[in-house]
Specification:
The chain is α/β, with parallel strands linked by helices. It has one domain: 3-Layer(aba) Sandwich (Rossmann fold). Helices cover about 40% and strands about 20% of the residues.
C-alpha cells in the first residue's frame, strides 16, 4: 500500500492536496502537523510525507532529520512559498526528497504528482519491491575508450 501523509496547517490546502492524491489511488492521511501522525511513519505505513505551509526556519531544519531517523527511507517532499536559500540548502542536506513551490493553478499539480510517484518508486526500489530499476551486472571497462559500461 502506498501511504502518504499531508501535513499542512492550512486546512484548505491540506484538503485540496488530499483530494488530488486520493484520485491517484494513494492511501492519504492528513494532519495539521506531522507530530500528530508520527505512528504511521514509525510503523512504515506512511512512505511519503508532503510538508506544506508556513515554516519556522529553525524548526523545519531540525525536524527533517528527526523524521529520517524514524524511517530512513522516508521521502519528504517540501511544498512552500519562497524560502531563504540558506534554509533550503540546510534542509536539502538533511535529506528531503524534493522541494517545490506551492502550486498556483490546477495544472501546476502535475509536478507534485510526478514527484510523489517518483518518491514511491524510489521507496519500493530501496525495499526491493516492484520492478528493478538498475541492472546488477558488474561494470566492464572498455580499454580503448576508457569508458565504463554495464556489459
Amino acid at each position: 500500500m502506498n501511504g502518504i501523509l499531508i501535513a499542512n496547517k492550512d486546512q484548505t490546502s491540506r484538503d485540496q492536496m488530499a483530494e488530488v492524491f486520493r484520485q491517484d489511488g494513494y492511501q492519504v492521511e492528513v494532519a495539521d502537523s506531522v507530530v500528530n501522525s508520527l505512528q504511521g511513519i514509525l510503523d512504515k505505513s506512511i512512505q511519503v510525507v508532503v510538508l506544506g505551509g508556513v515554516f519556522n526556519e529553525s524548526q523545519v531544519a531540525k525536524f527533517v532529520p528527526l523524521l529520517k531517523k524514524c524511517n530512513r527511507n522516508l521521502s519528504i517532499i517540501l511544498i512552500s512559498d519562497e524560502m531563504p536559500l540558506d534554509l533550503l540548502r540546510s534542509i536539502r542536506k538533511e535529506g528531503i526528497f524534493y522541494h517545490a513551490l506551492k502550486p498556483v493553478e490546477d495544472e501546476s499539480w502535475d509536478e507534485i504528482r510526478q514527484v510523489v510517484s517518483c518518491a514511491f518508486e524510489n521507496y519500493h526500489a530501496q525495499q526491493g519491491v516492484g520492478r528493478k530499476l538498475f541492472s546488477r551486472k558488474a561494470p566492464v571497462q572498455d580499454t580503448a575508450s576508457g569508458l565504463t559500461s554495464l556489459g
